[in-house]
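[audit] Reproducing an earlier prediction to check determinism. Same input, same settings, fresh worker. If the tokens differ from the archived copy the diff job will pick it up downstream; this log only records the rerun itself.
[audit] input (237 residues):
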Amino acid sequence: MLHEMPTANRLLAALPEAEYERLLPYLTTVSLAQRQTLWNPRAPIEAVYFPCTAMASISVLAEGDDPVEVAAIGNEGVVGLPLFLGSDSSPSGAFVQVPGEAVRMDADVFRQESTQEGALHRILQFYAQAFMTQVSQSTACTRLHRVEQRLARWLLTAQDRVGRGEFPMTHEFMAQILGVRRATVTEIAGEFQETGLVRYRRGAVAILDRNGLRRASCNCYRVVQEEFDRLLTVPVA
């Protein structure tokens, strides 16, 4: 159970204190393991998660293929947006990319609280718009930009979402996220390491030169981050 404002998650931190205190009995801090499934495609969503130091992936599975990420969710958001939009399931799945802590709320409680007019409802409206920007920008990025630009963008996003510069991540996992061959990721990650942008060892990646990664990334990173910053700083009290 939580006792202090969980400022590590931007949505919960944006709640007025009185609103957060009212929701407190329904919030539980949990530890999420890497690759842990948060919901399966077409299956009922039983809980939502407000990540603090973890990051989750919303992924789609094409017939016969590995899952491909369409959105990453970390400390800026909530895993379970379909419930807010009126559905109890999704054709996509959600699983944990980067292990860490999150705040859990049961689906029934979230559905009831998020549909009532109030601060949580307004915050989720802003977040839903920012999330749609992320998904649409990611779609364009996959089609238009080189893999090395997309990998640099993803690494920057991951650092933002988990709030630390080093986190567990394998080349195989990054290849699945980007929808490319593992050998391609290994080659590009090796180049990033040789130029001092990152350090990769023992299944973990460390960001060494954030400015360098920003130069290597496409403009999609800036577009998405500016939209999240714009929408999630709107007063809701």
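[audit] rerun output stored. Observation attached for the diff report: The two ends are 24 Å apart (CA to CA).
[audit] end
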